[in-house]
Amino acid sequence: MRQEYLRAAAEAYANIHEIESDCYHYIYSGFDPIIQQRIASRYSIKWNYEDKPLKCSAALSATALAELQYPVNEATGFAWSGNERAAFAGISKATWSRNNYSEHIEFIIKDIRSTARRVRRQIDKQLIDEEEAY
What we know:
Layout: H1 2-13, H2 18-28, H3 33-47, H4 54-67, H5 82-89, H6 93-98, H7 101-133
Helix pairs in contact: 1-7, 2-3, 2-7, 3-4, 4-7
């Protein structure tokens, strides 16, 4: 129990932004649906440009966040293939391939993973510095 409080305090002292905190907690705290909605809305807004209508950007975000919940294929570094992603998003395979949506999914996944790892390092650094102070 004390460890949870220490991690929360370390997160506060590390000056972590809300979206970074959401990525960290989504990956390391069990894929909370409330956090998932906040992250999905952020990436939906980020990807809502040019030829990608809001419907597609929302589906891309939701697909990436869902894929993060599955075990990773060691050969590809991702859990799903393009066909599985298209099926989950409800987008035809032809549209999916033509628009290279897998690249967008992979960017979102990599961005969330790297943000979560960076935050974890910052929190761990705060905890190590705290232990050294005593």
